[in-house]
Specification:
heterodimer; A: 596 residues; alpha+beta; 13% strand; B: alpha/beta; Rossmann fold; 8 helices; 10 strands; globular
């Protein structure tokens, strides 16, 4: 009990003495665990909202559609007949006429699918109103995702093929995916209005909703003999399509699935960057604490106790951060799980199973333990006398680097030699920066593909509600987090280097190096791994994008964008490391040299 | 006593009413208290006193590594007490060479690389810096240790490398802080011999020590207590006597 109390006191004392370092550690782990929680929380999140929408709207099991080929006229009674003869259909609604119309309103010019409906509620697929009222002559109802994307609400005036309509209501349906997954967006009108919009009969298509006796066997229906008979119409007068309720659910789920995949990949990358940063921070803290370890041992602490103090401190911080990360993830999850306004109402906060919470906490603890274990064991094993003498770990000697640096200007000479002293630390910085640059490259690749896609689909996509925009925002957000974390790693590495190299730094000052030369040297020691990271991050990022399902052959980002990342990375690293470098460079050399 | 004793030659160091304080109010410590001192070219000055009397602080003040709280200080005829740090660093490259009690050699550099470091920092070409380092290594009789790391050298050898490094840029004055403090008798003799050679060659030297044998090799001996000079003696022996005779150490 006494030992546990002692460990507790020592841990608290150390956290109080270095609150900023402790806060930074917690921040790193919170960011990682929040992202991981979000990734796990999105798992199958659309199941519940889709099921509720389907129940509320009496969603069909199959949606059949015919659209006339140019010059032909759709004949629904004949062309849908093969489906109805099967004997598996227990209920239908429709056929409803539809046409593709041009929707205009102030600031809006887009194509829409205008579908004619009865004034009376349908037995199948009766869209559920979330706002306003059902269709009436001159009154249109917009699919909820479409309305949200266009910013339209009941009472607004719109024009369809030049005819004036008023938005009567906004509704959701389980007969198609929400906009923008389904394009063009759907507008319900009265049958008369819908038929009036078509410039001629040849422009009208029809939709038929079917209820099956065995909804679970819907794929046998759609892709078996019945479906084939429908697809293989005797003449080529119409284009046919069949969509099952499973397809619609899957499409809805795709939106969230992309988010989930992105978050899980990103949180893994974040965990790696966090690991690198924590390793640097813990390593630097241990450099500062060597003498404290010696003192503890001198007054009788066992190696086990010393290791326990180091581990306990970082475990405590990791656990606190994991709890905060899970809480933040749970709070933020609904923001990501609302897949547009297409599904009925606001989905409930996704339930986070206990296993997910355990995974998040385990990752936080694993990151902290992995980063702390080596310094803890080293602290436990160092001899008391050696620890009291507070020697620096013998730095590495790289003769070829020393010879090379002698030919360089003083700041680079200094930076290269500092780098060569602690190559592992430089490798950690380079690794975290490589991950951040790679993520940025992936984001730029995605953005470029969206731009290209937008140009070729200008008629259908609109506003910020598109899936592509939504994914790109998410990727940018995560890239931003990664860049910040990698920057923090570089900052901490500079700080750790400044602490570790304070004797050679002070000596260089005593021998005539100016504070500016020393400061630039400390920054240069980070710019070199930064340059390596920027060069490596570009191919890694392109590979990551390709591996995550991107298509570089369709639209690879412009070379100039990618090349701009190299100076960009160096500028960010230089800016972030300037303060710790300056602090390290301006410390009084007399103070350091005298203390030895 | 605060008045300087002037020796022949032009002044390299001139301190007037120099003070250095640490802390504030009740915790105020006056490490150097109203000290005036002139060190002329070619002169060898030893500052002695008990531990904590402020002699190391004074040495760091004289070399521009610390800023005085009050007073003026000129190094090589240039006032340095309020000189911008960058200018001071550039002046230090050629005007001052430091020798420390703890040697302060860079662990990962060989003896030769340590010695050439000040020349490289001063912008010398790598070949010129290397040539000068080899000459100095020969002067301190360590040519056969050129490729050795500090960890492979004895204490005396490390200090001789440190002295060679202090001379790399042919400084106007060498400031040594307890140069024999970490050495055994034999190594002390080696270092004293080196200092004696430097003094004979006209190198200006200021040595802080509490070792009377080191102090006995100087031209002038200043005693310090509680941050102030309390006694000053001009030693007539100096280079006229042999090192063994002065120090009582066997060569």
């Amino acid at each position: 009990m006494g030992r546990i109390l002692l460990i507790w006191r020592l841990v608290l004392g150390d956290i109080r003495r270095r609150p900023v370092q402790a806060a930074m550690l917690v921040l790193m782990i919170v960011t990682t665990t929040t992202t991981l929680t979000l990734g796990l929380a999105l798992h199958k999140v659309t199941d519940s909202p889709f099921a509720r929408t389907r129940a509320a709207t009496r969603g069909p099991d199959v949606v059949a559609q015919i659209a006339p080929q140019s010059g032909a006229v759709a004949r629904p009674a004949t062309q849908f007949a093969s489906l109805l003869r099967s004997g598996q259909v227990t209920a239908i609604s429709g056929p409803y006429p539809f046409s593709i119309a041009s929707l205009t309103a102030p600031g809006i010019d887009i194509l829409a699918q205008a579908e004619g409906r009865d004034l009376a509620p349908a037995k199948l697929d009766q869209p559920a109103l979330t706002e306003g009222s059902w269709v009436r002559p001159g009154g249109a109802v917009l699919e909820s995702g479409f309305a949200a994307s266009l910013g339209l609400k009941p009472g607004d005036a719109i024009h369809l093929n030049g005819h004036r309509f008023t938005v009567a209501g906004v509704a959701v349906s389980a007969a198609q995916c929400f906009y923008p997954v389904t394009k063009p967006g759907v507008i319900w009108l009265t049958r008369t209005d819908a038929e009036r919009l078509a410039p001629r009969a040849q422009a009208l298509g029809y939709v038929l909703n079917l209820k099956l006796a065995h909804p679970e066997a819907v794929e046998d229906f759609a892709f078996g003999p019945i479906g084939n008979a429908f697809f293989n119409q005797p003449s080529n007068e119409v284009v046919t399509s069949l969509q099952t309720w499973l397809d619609i659910r899957h499409e809805d789920f795709q939106v969230i699935s992309v988010d989930e995949k992105g978050l899980l990949i990103s949180s893994s990358l974040l965990a790696l960057v966090a690991l690198a940063t924590i390793a640097v921070v813990v390593g630097a803290r241990m450099t500062e604490q060597t003498r404290r370890v010696g003192l503890l041992k001198a007054v009788g602490a066992t190696p086990w106790l010393v290791a326990a103090v180091v581990l306990a401190e970082h475990l405590l911080l990791a656990l606190l951060a994991a709890v905060a990360g899970v809480a933040a993830g749970k709070l933020l999850a609904p923001l990501l799980t609302d897949p547009g306004a297409g599904l009925l109402g606001s989905p409930p906060a996704p339930p986070l199973p206990a296993t997910a919470i355990l995974i998040v906490v385990a990752v936080a603890v694993a990151v902290a333990v992995t980063a702390t274990l080596v310094p803890a064991v080293r602290a436990a094993r160092v001899s008391t006398i050696r620890a009291l003498a507070d020697p620096a770990h013998p730095p590495r000697r790289r003769p070829w680097l020393i010879a090379l640096s002698a030919r360089l200007p003083v700041p680079l000479l200094f930076g290269l030699r500092l780098l060569a002293r602690r190559p592992r630390r430089a490798a950690l910085t380079a690794a975290s920066l490589t991950i951040a640059v790679a993520m940025l490259v992936a984001a730029l690749s995605l953005q470029h593909r969206i731009d290209v896609h937008d140009q070729t689909n200008a008629g259908y996509l609109v506003g910020s509600g598109s899936v592509a925009d939504r994914v790109s925002h998410l990727v940018y957000l995560l890239s931003g987090i990664l860049v910040v974390l990698a920057g923090v790693t570089a900052m901490f590495t500079t700080w750790a280097t400044a602490i570790d190299a304070q004797r050679p730094t002070a000596l260089a000052r005593a021998l005539g190096a100016t504070p500016r030369q020393v400061g630039v040297g400390l920054t240069a020691a980070q710019l070199i791994p930064g340059l390596i990271a920027a060069c490596l991050g570009i191919p890694v990022g392109l590979g990551l994008y390709q591996a995550a399902g991107g298509h570089l052959h369709e639209a690879s980002p412009p070379l100039l964008w990618l090349l701009a990342l190299i100076p960009g990375t160096l500028i960010v690293v230089a800016a972030l490391t300037a303060i710790p470098a300056r602090l390290g460079a301006t410390r009084s050399p007399a103070e350091v040299l005298r203390s030895d | 006593m605060t008045e300087p004793i002037l020796a022949g030659g032009e002044p390299i160091l001139a301190a007037r009413t120099l003070s250095k304080e640490y802390g504030t109010a009740s915790a105020l410590v006056r490490a150097v208290d109203d000290v005036s001192l002139t060190v002329n070219q070619g002169e060898s000055v030893a500052i002695v006193g008990p531990s904590g009397c402020g002699k190391s602080t004074l040495l760091y003040l004289l070399g521009g590594l610390e800023r005085p709280t009050a007073g003026t200080l000129a190094l090589d005829s240039q006032p340095i007490h309020d000189m911008p740090e960058s200018r001071l660093a550039r002046l230090r490259r050629h005007a001052v060479g430091f020798v420390f009690q703890a040697f302060h050699l860079v662990d990962e550099l060989t003896a030769l690389e340590n010695i050439e470091l000040p020349a490289l920092l001063a912008g010398a070409s790598p070949s010129a810096a290397r040539e000068r380092a080899r000459d100095l290594l020969e002067q301190v009789d360590l040519s056969d240790r050129a490729a050795h790391l500090p960890s492979a050298l004895s204490g005396g050898q490390r200090q001789r490398v440190a002295i060679a490094r202090a001379l790399a840029n042919r400084p106007r004055v060498v400031l040594a802080d307890e140069p024999t403090g970490n050495l055994d008798s034999a190594a002390t003799t080696d270092v004293l011999r080196l200092f004696d050679q430097l003094r004979t060659a006209g190198q200006t030297l200021v040595v802080v020590t509490h070792d009377s044998r080191v102090a006995a090799t100087a031209d002038r001996l200043i005693s310090m207590r509680d941050g102030a000079f309390v006694d000053e003696t001009r030693l007539t022996g100096g280079s006229a006597r042999s090192l063994t005779e002065i120090t009582g150490l066997e060569a």
